[in-house]
Write a structure and sequence with these properties.
Layout lengths: L5 H6 L5 E3 L8 H9 L4 E4 L5 H14 L4 E6 L12 H13 L17 H10 L3 E5 L5 H9 L3 E6 L2 H9 L4 E5 L5 E2 L14 H11 L4 E4 L5 H9 L4 E4 L1 H4 L8 H9 L5 E4 L7 E4 L2 H6 L9 H6 L27 H18 L3
Parallel strand pairs: 1-9, 2-3, 3-4, 4-5, 5-6, 6-8, 8-9
Antiparallel strand pairs: 7-11, 10-11
Helix pairs in contact: 2-3, 2-14, 3-5, 9-14
The structure holds flavin mononucleotide.
Flavin mononucleotide binds next to strand 3, strand 4, strand 9 and helix 10.
Length: 351
């Protein structure tokens, strides 16, 4: 059976389909619907205290007895922000004025870590999977998480990054292609103009590491899942496709923009958050691109409130290149549809 392999057996998954943890756009209900349908649901821990993180995990457990992936994007504290990015702040204030949102808030931002409280919570609650984006935690923290019996995953955007993750003891590597929505997972400062597409990256990562490889970027229907499996992936991770599910915490204007997007709608830019990420191109990105962004995540703290304008031209419309392949569908139905389409596809090429 195409869906059975070492990774699906280890995590007790019916289907090798992971829902990407996507900060506060992914909810315990979204993750539970995915895990109940036989995939792996994920929730983001970005910005949550250990107590709130534990509550989110409990929210998932109330709705599902399946496996859960808990995600930690990790980054350095941006430091003192006094007087930083004044030109950018002036440009943004013009958007706040135009939308009647008053004074732009002061930029803020601290580091993303797995601190002692989060580590204690993880060892106590034991989610089946803990994943990382942008960096790995200290080796001792990673060791402690693994010795609690938790499976670990992290994103790589090149073969070299995949090798580093394997050498660090990560249990499975996500190969993230340039097509992907959201932030690039690079942790070695890969020049975005040089990040490979998934079709080129995936087989090369599969050849380079011995741990299971999870494909991410542009996967949205059975054909793209089947292609990733044929290229050697043990599983796929989809983000953009799950943004249109009713369980996702995605504003209506963002959903509408995803529904209208085509293959050429998106762009990778650092001006929304201070780190490169893929979005549906809009006025916010075009006009801010003329100024240097503040360091991540301070830039995000001054662009996110513009969502309150309700104007899709000023929102941060995260999306991958396959938005046009995505569907309005409850998450459980999406997992089952993807599984059935993949089975049909693989059968067609089985002889
Ligand atoms: C809105 C959005 C937010 C994301 N946030 C995270 C995150 O917090 N952590 C993470 O590991 N990956 C995150 N990702 C990246 C996904 O893990 C994955 O690489 C990507 O969604 C795959 O490409 P696709 O969007 O074309 O499916 C995010 C993706 C999207 C679309």
């Amino acid at each position: 059976m195409w869906s059975r392999n070492a990774l699906t057996k280890r995590l007790n998954l019916e289907w090798p389909i992971l829902q990407a943890p996507m900060g506060n756009l992914s909810t315990p209900s979204l993750a539970a619907a995915v895990s109940n349908a036989g995939g792996l649901g994920g929730i983001g821990m970005w910005g949550f205290s250990a107590d709130d993180a534990e509550r989110r995990i409990a929210g998932f457990r109330q709705q599902s007895g399946g496996a859960l992936n808990v995600n930690y994007p990790l980054w350095d504290d941006p430091g003192d922000l006094t007087g930083v990015g004044q030109e950018m702040c002036r440009r943004l204030q013009a958007f706040y004025d135009e939308s009647g949102l008053g004074a732009m808030p002061e930029p803020v931002g601290s580091g993303g870590t797995v601190d002692a409280e989060h580590l204690a919570m993880l060892k106590h609650v034991k989610p089946e999977v803990v994943s990382f984006h942008f960096a790995l935690p200290e080796p001792e923290v990673l060791r402690e998480i693994k010795s609690a019996g938790i499976y670990t995953i992290a994103s790589a955007t090149t073969v070299a990054e995949a090798r580093i993750l394997e050498e660090s003891g990560i249990n499975a590597v996500i190969a993230q292609g340039i097509e992907a929505g959201g932030h690039r997972g690079t942790f070695t400062g890969v020049d975005i103009a040089m990040q490979p597409g998934l079709f080129a990256l995936l087989p090369q990562v599969v050849d380079a590491v011995t741990v299971p490889v999870i494909a991410a970027g542009g996967i949205a229907d059975g054909r793209t899942v089947a292609a990733a499996l044929v290229l050697g992936a043990s599983a796929v991770q989809l983000g953009t496709a799950f943004l249109r599910c009713e369980e996702a915490n995605v504003p209506d204007d963002h959903r509408a923009a995803l529904g209208k997007a085509d293959d050429a709608s998106t762009v990778v830019s650092s001006v929304v958050s201070g780190r490169p990420a893929r979005f549906i191109r809009n006025r916010l990105i075009d006009e801010l691109s003329q100024s240097e962004p503040l360091p991540f995540p301070a830039q995000l703290s001054i662009t996110t409130p513009l969502r309150a304008s309700g104007d899709p031209e000023l929102g941060s419309l995260f999306s991958g290149q396959s938005a046009a392949l995505t569907r309005d569908m409850p998450a459980g139905e999406l997992v089952k549809t993807l599984a059935s389409e993949t089975g049909v596809c693989l059968k067609q090429f089985g002889s």
